[in-house]
Design a protein that fits this description.
heterotrimer; A alpha/beta; B mainly alpha; C mainly alpha; A: alpha/beta; Rossmann fold; 5 strands; 42% helix; 20% strand; globular; C: 3 helices; elongated; disordered N terminus; disordered C terminus
């Protein structure tokens, strides 16, 4: 059975691009674009990998990350953080709150694919 | 004896009358019925304090000794008054708009609210005024003695000292009672001004009466008097040219710089229009004052025995003719001249001493500056009262110490030359933006030292500080340092000599140092406000109220202005701002006007420091950054110097911390901005890169997919371009490099075009517009393209964000004469109160970020409106989102 | 421009205002000139002969100086009266100090 990726991101074009790349590689891609209820959605859907944007409407990606790491069965979920701010500070925050990988936009498609594959040990 | 008793009785009733006049004037002013108190005639008469006892009695003595030279003392001020359009008009406007309280305050405010300068001017003023006050006391004492002699010998009861002491005490009392009724030195002292006006009439009337008596009573007519003059020892025009020109200049300078003249000319001025009347009425007054001086002098020389004191001819000539009543009148004239001068001088000097020396020391000693609790009004009042008594008593002590001898007679001009040292800094300050604080300081000090050395000290005669040898051959035998022949130029009249060198070197030092130094931002700000006082309307921003606490300001203002007045002030401002409740927003305008209000009570420098302590914050502009850096550098220097004093160091450290936290705040804002830009640029780039890689690397894409992905790349590239355009536009606008392309046009046409342009874009939904063509029929003269950019932005925003079922945008135009309002109101749910504060900030996008645009539109609009001299604001109280574009008069075409 | 007086009054009666403003400007110039004239006239006695034989008598000097004074006062009075009718807006746009 195909592994599940959940993508939480608010830019429709970026959602489209990542979905395209991952589906072609055989992943089952779910998307969500709001920060408010993102953590609940993650827990409900139970993906194998989570791709999480930092600047989301409603709630910041770091907040969601912290929430996920604090309990509810998502403490060890592999998480790839994406950000467009690209400052050293952001990487530190991501590491501190327990993200497994951190990538700055814009990215190479192959990089994203590689990272998602590595995170689930394919 | 009888004459003397009568004199004392008359004198006391006269003083009682003055108290009454002052009291009733004050009362009717308080009841708001004081319209007549503010007439131009009263203003003109109050200027007559220029004619002191030195001129009332002394002019005749002067004429008896040196002929027509005495006229210079009156011609100088007359020229200044008839030339009011040049200097006085500007001085009065500055004084009123900046709420200046004294000469010292003027200089200090102009040069970056520097208290050091204020202290220098104050000291200079006190030093040169003290002998002058002593001179007034002496004149009253001498005139008393004349009556005592006339009344018979053995009048040991009325010795000079006791008379002088009584007069000094009486004057202090009067000045304290009527000069410090209200704290605000900037409010008019109606009682005092009215009493002075009465005294002005009395002294003019007295001198004219004596003159008329001499011309028609003794001589027998005008032609007889003229021929008698020609026959006397004053019969020929023989005036030292240097002194003639020099004294006209000196008296003109002193007229502008004397603290007491500044007090009546500028501080007590109620209406700039009064200056117009005074411009001819005051010259008329002094002309009349000097009209009969020569006839009286000639008659005195003729009638009275050789060796009589010519300074008292005004009294002794009528007495010698048995005219007791006339002599009494003349005595009252002299008494009036002396008292009015002392009263106003004491008020003016005490304001300076209290605001610039006593209050700063008090605030420092009590530690917390503006943050101490409790009412400081009584402290300010007390300090002013003590200063008044101190100033008058200083004059008395000086009089006692010098014994009231001949030395005093010449002190009038010496004193003039002292205060004239302020002139270069004053004129430079109001006409030349390049004048700096250090320049003013250098000029003042150089002028002051030369004046002290070449004129003031030698005026006491040899043996007082300067030995006779030093006076003749220079100190330590250094020839070119002779006090009365500096740099080897001997043979000049000592006064002209001192005047020449002091004023010349003063001006040179002022100019040179000003040119070489760089003013602090505050100085430049003040300089622009002073020099361009006729153009400035709102004045540049100096405070930003982001961090200010209205409540703290209120507490501070209550302590200075009094609870009722402070509350009224805040209430007024709150109403003006349209804020509910008592506390207005601490907007820059409000802070500036509050500071001005406070400076009326405690002086510009202190008020600035107090507001600064509470407000603390600054808006982010290059100028403000400079100010912070400048402050920090100054404090570092300060702390190094005073390391030994731990208290000072703690204080400085606190200020450094404040400066540091300011810088930190600025840096945080800068980071946030950069990170926003990064985000806005990287997001479209991400899509572009991802899809171009997809197009490159993926095989077997369908035609639809190819098409779709290519157009995504295209759209995102456009978005990127738009963002860069906006950023560049904003940066150009913020740096002020934009050139306005001013053209004429019709508001209606402009709106038509803007609506069409906004509709052309395919963002957002269809919008119904309601407009009123009649109100839009206005012609404009402004940068039409830029203005239309603002309109397009507002219309496009309504299309994008209006959430009503049937979006409607109402465009209303209101013409307010000097202001044109164009309001854009939609029928959506509006913008939340929290968001209203930030919508004009860069990248402040509210709600759904999906609807395009980088959030720079309103920030750009705000910058454009600033460039066009207007503003764009969010209108509260409308149901939907509502924006108001205001354009000032000049942007509209002249009809 | 020769026949402009014959043309009917158009919708823009600005010419009249311009003229008045122009006249006000010149009156301000005059107000600035008065003290300079004063300085010159009060300095003239310095040029009078100092030779004891030819000195001017004090009575004539008095008449001269007070005469100048009175003229200055009258001129200033007249000018300040005219400047009184200046609308406030015009007064504030004047650059003050600059000629």
């Amino acid at each position: 059975m195909a592994k599940k990726v959940l993508l939480i991101e608010d830019e429709p074009n970026i959602i489209e691009a990542i979905s395209f790349i991952l589906s072609r590689d055989g992943w089952q891609v779910d998307t969500h674009s709001n920060g408010h209820d993102a953590a609940d959605v993650v827990r409900k859907k139970g993906p194998d990998v989570l791709i999480l944007d930092v600047m989301l409407p409603g709630r910041s990606g770091y907040d969601i990350l912290r929430d996920l790491r604090s309990g509810g069965g998502t403490e060890t979920l592999p998480i790839l953080m994406l950000t467009a701010r690209g400052q050293g500070k952001d990487r530190e925050m991501a590491e501190k709150y327990g993200a497994n990988r951190f990538m700055t936009k814009p990215f190479a498609n192959s990089e994203v694919l590689e990272a998602v594959r590595n995170l689930v040990g394919v | 004896m009888g004459a003397l008793n009568a004199l004392i009785a008359v004198c006391l009733s006269y003083v009682a009358l003055l108290f009454l006049v002052a009291f009733f004037a004050e009362r009717s002013a308080m009841r708001g019925r004081g319209g007549w108190l503010r007439s131009p005639i009263v203003y003109t008469l109050s200027l007559s304090i220029y004619c002191t006892a030195w001129t009332f009695y002394g002019a005749v003595g002067y004429a008896a000794r040196s002929g027509l030279e005495y006229l210079t003392i009156y011609i100088g001020p007359s020229l200044v008054m008839v030339g009011w359009w040049w200097i006085l008009r500007k001085l009065v406007r500055i004084g009123r708009s900046q709420r200046i309280t004294s000469v010292a305050d003027l200089i200090s405010s102009r040069f970056g609210k520097s208290n050091l300068l204020a202290v220098c001017v104050t000291i200079l003023a006190v030093i040169s005024a003290t002998p002058y006050i002593a001179l007034q006391l002496q004149s009253v004492t001498l005139s008393f003695a004349v009556f005592a002699e006339a009344g018979g010998g053995g009048q040991s009861l009325y010795t000079g000292e006791s008379t002088a002491l009584w007069v000094a005490m009486g004057l202090s009392l009067f000045t304290v009672v009527f000069g410090t009724r209200n704290l605000d030195a900037n409010e008019r002292h109606h009682g005092v001004v009215m009493a002075i006006a009465v005294e002005a009439v009395v002294k003019l009337f007295a001198l004219l009466a004596v003159g008329a008596f001499v011309v028609w009573g003794i001589s027998g007519g005008v032609s007889e008097t003229l021929s008698r003059i020609d026959a006397s020892q004053l019969g020929q025009w023989q005036v030292n040219g240097g002194r003639w020109a020099g004294l006209i200049m000196l008296s003109a300078a002193a007229f502008l710089c004397l603290p007491r003249m500044f007090q009546v000319l500028v501080v007590e001025n109620d209406d700039e229009g009064h200056l117009r009347t005074a411009s001819w009425a005051f010259p008329l007054y002094v002309m009349l004052m000097s009209l009969f001086v020569v006839p009286i002098a000639v008659m005195g020389l003729d009638l009275l025995p050789e060796g009589s004191n010519p300074d008292l001819f005004v009294l002794t000539v009528p007495l010698s003719q048995g005219q007791q009543g006339l002599a009494m009148l003349s005595f009252l004239g002299g008494f009036s001249s002396a008292t009015s001068m002392v009263i106003v001088a004491a008020i003016a000097l005490s304001t300076m001493v209290s605001n610039h020396i006593v209050m700063p020391i008090f605030l420092r000693v009590t530690g917390g500056g503006a943050s101490v609790s409790g009412d400081v009004r009584h402290v300010v009042l007390l300090s002013r009262r003590v200063s008044i008594t101190g100033v008058v008593m200083l004059g008395y002590i000086y009089y006692r110490l010098t014994g009231g001898g001949e030395a005093l007679a010449s002190i009038g001009l010496v004193s003039f030359a002292g205060v004239a040292q302020v002139l270069p800094a004053m004129l430079g300050g109001i006409f030349w933006r390049g004048a700096t604080r250090l320049g003013a300081l250098a000029g003042l000090s150089v002028g002051f030292v030369i004046w002290l050395y070449a004129l003031f000290l030698p005026s006491f005669g040899p043996g007082f500080i300067l030995s006779e040898a030093a006076l003749l051959n220079g100190p330590f035998g250094i020839d070119w340092l002779q006090p009365q022949a500096l740099f080897g130029i001997a043979g000049l009249d000592p006064l002209v000599h001192a005047l020449l060198w002091s004023m010349m070197l003063n001006s040179v030092a002022f100019f040179t140092v000003s040119v070489m130094t760089f003013p602090s931002p505050l100085e430049r700000l003040q300089g622009a406000q002073f020099v361009n006082v006729f153009q400035h309307s709102g004045g540049p921003r100096s405070w930003s109220g982001g961090v200010a606490q209205s409540e703290d300001l209120m507490i501070m203002a209550q302590r200075i202005l009094g609870a009722a007045e402070a509350r009224a002030l805040f209430q007024r401002e709150a109403t003006r701002q349209g804020v509910r409740g008592d506390l207005p927003e601490p907007s820059p305008d409000f802070l500036e006007s509050l500071e001005r209000e406070l400076s009326g009570s405690v002086g510009g420098a202190t008020a600035h420091a107090m507001v600064g302590q509470i407000v603390g914050g600054m808006s982010v502009s290059v100028e403000d950054l400079m100010a912070v850096a400048d402050e920090t550098a100054q404090m570092m220097e300060y702390s190094n110097r005073l390391e030994a004093q731990s208290r000072e160091v703690t204080r400085t450290a606190r200020q450094l911390r404040e400066a540091n936290s300011k810088l930190t705040r600025l840096s945080v804002q800068k980071d946030a901005f950069l990170s926003q830009i990064s985000h806005e640029l990287r997001t479209p780039m991400t899509s572009i890169r991802a899809f171009s890689e997809i197009l490159r690397d993926s095989d077997g894409l369908s035609g639809d997919e190819l098409n779709k992905y290519a157009s995504i790349i295209h759209d995102e590239a456009l978005r990127l371009t738009r963002l860069l355009d906006d950023l560049l536009d904003l940066s150009v606008l913020e740096n002020g490099q934009v050139n306005l392309n001013l053209r004429h046009g019709q508001l209606g046409d402009l709106l038509d075009r803007s609506v069409a342009a906004a509709a052309a874009s395919d963002d957002g939904r269809a919008l119904r517009l309601t407009r009123d063509a009649a109100t839009e029929a206005l012609s404009l003269h402004t940068d039409l393209d830029r203005l239309s950019q603002v309109f397009i932005n507002l219309i496009a925003n309504a299309r994008k964000y209006c959430d009503a079922d049937q979006p409607t945008l109402d465009i209303r135009v209101t013409d307010h004469g000097d202001l044109l309002w164009v309001d854009f109101v939609d029928n959506g749910s509006g913008i939340s109160t929290d968001a209203q504060d930030v919508i004009f900030e860069k990248f402040a996008r509210i709600g759904e970020p999906r609807v395009g645009g980088a959030g720079l539109g309103l920030a750009i609009s705000r910058q454009i409106m600033q460039r066009l001299g207007g503003e764009i604001t969010y209108l509260r109280g409308e149901s939907g989102a509502a924006f108001r574009v205001s354009l000032p008069r000049p942007a509209m075409a002249a009809q | 421009m020769t026949n402009s007086a014959d043309e009917p009054v158009g919708p823009r009666p600005t010419i009249f205002v311009e003229k008045q403003t122009y006249r006000m400007r010149r009156i301000m110039d005059a107000a600035r000139l008065v003290p300079l004239l004063g300085v010159v006239f009060f300095a003239i006695p310095l040029l009078w002969p100092t030779d004891p034989e030819m000195r001017i008598t004090t009575s004539r000097t008095i008449l001269y100086l007070f005469g100048v004074w009175v003229v200055l006062i009258l001129v200033t009075m007249r000018l300040s009266h005219v400047l009184r009718s200046l609308p406030p807006a015009d007064r504030s746009t004047d650059r003050g100090g600059a000629l």
